[in-house]
Amino acid sequence: KVDYDVCSNYGNWLYSAGIGNDPRENRKFNMIKQGLDYDGNGDYVRLWVPELQGIKGADIHTPWALSSAALSQAGVTLGETYPQPMVTAPEWSRHILQRPGGTPHPRGRRGPAQHKDRGVDFYFSRKKDA
């Protein structure tokens, strides 16, 4: 079975391009955030990227941020068994900040309550002083 839906795929490309019902400039798809939100434990990545199967939990979404010891323990050598990232977007940094114990928080800086209220306001940034 192929994980593909024509309508969703086309709609997502339009959304990412900033056209359609909700156009915005500089729209970026944050794959780290999406991975953490929808595959928090990394099971989907482990299924399709066997080279990273030895990496535990959410760390699988950002293997380049792991220590050399953690990579070695997982059997991953960046640039050999798994490629180095071609780019690292600045927006990803808040999702790979190190927490005590040396692993990224599975939901970024704000923790599990990040999407507690999923109303219309969820899609728009909130005022910082509110």
Automatic annotation (TrEMBL):
The keyword Flavoprotein applies. Binds 1 FAD per subunit. Residues 96-130 are annotated as: Disordered. Its cofactor is FAD. Keywords: FAD, Flavoprotein. One of its GO terms (biological process) is photoreactive repair. One of its GO terms (molecular function) is deoxyribodipyrimidine photo-lyase activity. FAD binds at D3, Y4, D5. Residues 2-99 form the Cryptochrome/DNA photolyase FAD-binding domain. It comes from the Eukaryota. Residues 114-130 have a biased composition (Basic and acidic residues). PANTHER family: CRYPTOCHROME, CRYPTOCHROME DASH. Belongs to the DNA photolyase class-1 family. This is CRYD protein. It comes from Nesospiza acunhae.
